[in-house]
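Attaching the record inline, Q. Sequence:
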Amino acid sequence: MKSSISKKRKSYILTMRILMWLCVGITVALAAFLIIYVLAKGIPNISWELLSTSPSRLNGTVGILPDILNTLYIVLATLVIVVPLGVGAAIYLTEYAKNKRLVSIIEYTAETLSGIPSIIYGLVGMLFFCEVLGFQTSLLVGALTLAVMNLPTIMRTTQESLKTVPVSYREGAFGLGAGKWRVVRTVVLPNCVDGVITGCILTVGRILGESAALLFTAGFAHALNGIISGLMSPGATLTVALYVYAKEQGEFGIAFAIAAILLILTVIINLCASLVGRFFAKRRNV
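Structure, as predicted:
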């Protein structure tokens, strides 16, 4: 009887192990196929002319320099807005808030906001910022919409990082006579800065890959502008430009080139997040 149960258990473990490795293999194969296919299609179409020029109907040139700059502008503007708000909200909820029920409600709301489709953010952003507040379609409106969309991510990431700091650190600082803000500024934040930076880097990756929300708020223009005039004007980011070239103009070579650039940027951002986390973890343990 025991031998039959043992055989059944061994066969069950073997079956589950095979299924697990099969799922891992399928996932890795799909990811590898996607990366190889996009890079194989896109890299041959990447040229210096493509990266350094603006699109011109007169000369027949196709360039994505305005789209690269627009992407940079919207990333910087979004981070300037969302990082202080997200980090400040996380510090308040973790270190200052006394009403735990209110904190739980806010955390639940933030988790709910994280699951809302981005196109809904785009629709609400267009209606609120453009229709209610009277802003024109521009990169600034897109940055404000992306700030609202990424605020829960920054806030929750910072909260989890703050919670990893031992309570004994705070108690020791209080015992030395330090005030609340001084403890947060000199003890808590330096010990969780790796989580904050990692959250910011991952937010940059999400901003780079966002297109649905920007279709409603940022526009499709390919004009070359400075950072101030660019933020106040409509502009297409790399993801929006990919959509326009592939769907509207049928320029699939240019679309694959942009896709390859975005894929490379995403890989670099993920590597940076991993390296930053390891660097601060080693620094903390030294």
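The two ends are 56 Å apart (CA to CA). Residues 205 and 268 are 9 Å apart (CA to CA).

More tomorrow.
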